[in-house]
Write a structure and sequence with these properties.
binds zinc ion; alpha+beta; 28% helix; 17 strands; seven-stranded mixed beta sheet
Length: 331
């Protein structure tokens, strides 16, 4: 049985150097004309990564925004686009361009012995507003070589494209863990040829992963990967869609990938999914099982596409399941 390799501490280079320098530079009081100051501030803001860290026991979990993409409301299934749009508008989440801004969050887990990524983002496959992971890692002093493992929730393009950049593994020392059923599904040549347009990038990305990632570990079932990280069966969104539970010191965080998309839809509507789901009934069944269970367990949850940093809980309010974002913790 394969578990995640431990790497010597000397390979870990977690510093906050870049961020500190950036803030220091912004804090000087040089006299400049307002337009130049505004321009400089805009450049600085664009260059800074969007990250948020919190502790789960002694483990540091950092949410990193890989970027975003505007998506039409018609991409959601199970309800008419107008009904979905109204639900977003009621939460002030309908953009002026008539679309939903979907974010992509990647998670960095630092357990003191190793650095582990959950998913790898969209890279440039999602266009100019995605693929910020590598810049963000550089900004917090994490070299790609220091990543011990990448745990994949599923093989859609927005989760695996960052594994292979320009034909080479982006994290050369990492073992990449993914459910066997997703590998089988997304590398099936017959399915790849018959895939609808919006799924083609996922089949292409999966082909790049199996060709270029040297240490791909396919798993079949729930099990522990380290003392603190274990696989959770969340099949439904894709054939091998998986969650990861981070647990330490009596606290835990369940990273659920694409089980929830936005508070306008989830957890209230388990019948609403997304057009990328090959088996909508299986996806709905996963949501029907997970949402009440998570509410019962009062589980802290992280989801890729929920508004950044995507961490919160499913709570029961007057018989209805709703999303309660986790309060920001300082220090
Ligand atoms: Zn996704």
């Amino acid at each position: 049985m394969t578990s995640i390799t431990r790497r010597p501490l000397s390979q870990r280079t977690l510093t906050r150097r870049s961020l500190t320098l950036g803030l220091g530079a912004a804090a000087t009081f040089t006299a400049v004309s307002p337009p130049a100051a505004v321009e400089a501030a805009a450049r600085t803001a664009a260059a800074l990564p969007t990250i948020a860290s919190r502790k789960v026991g002694a483990i540091e979990v950092t949410a990193i925004s890989d970027g975003f993409m505007d998506v039409p409301f018609g991409v959601f299934t199970g309800a008419p686009a107008a009904e979905v749009e109204a639900a977003f508008a009621a939460r002030f989440a309908r953009r002026p361009n008539g679309m939903h801004q979907m974010g992509f969050t990647v998670w960095l887990i630092d357990d003191g012995e190793r650095l582990v990524l959950i998913d790898s983002g969209f890279a440039s496959v999602g266009g100019p507003t995605t693929g910020r992971l590598m810049t963000a890692l550089a900004a917090i002093g994490v070299e790609p070589q220091a990543i011990s493992a990448v745990l994949i929730t599923h093989m859609h393009a927005d989760h695996i494209s960052g594994l292979v950049i320009a034909g080479r593994p982006a994290f050369p020392n990492a073992e990449v863990f993914v459910h066997r059923d997703d590998v089988t599904y997304f590398t099936d040549p017959v399915r790849a040829r018959a895939a609808p347009e919006l799924l083609k990038s996922s089949f292409d990305a999966a082909a790049r992963v199996v060709t270029s990632v040297p240490r791909l570990q396919r798993f079949d079932r729930e099990r522990a990967l380290t003392r603190a990280i274990s696989i959770v069966d969340l099949r439904g969104h894709t054939p091998g869609h998986s969650g990861y539970r981070i647990a330490d010191g009596g606290e835990s965080l369940l990273i659920v990938g694409d089980a929830l998309f936005h508070p306008a839809l989830h957890p209230a509507r388990t019948d609403i999914g997304i057009a990328f789901e090959p088996d909508p009934a299986a996806a709905a069944a996963m949501r029907q099982r997970l949402f009440p269970q998570a509410a019962e367990e009062r589980a802290l949850i992280a989801a890729t596409h929920m508004p950044f940093p995507g961490i919160g809980r499913i709570v029961r309010d007057s018989g209805q399941l709703t999303w309660a974002p986790a309060d920001w913790e300082l220090g």
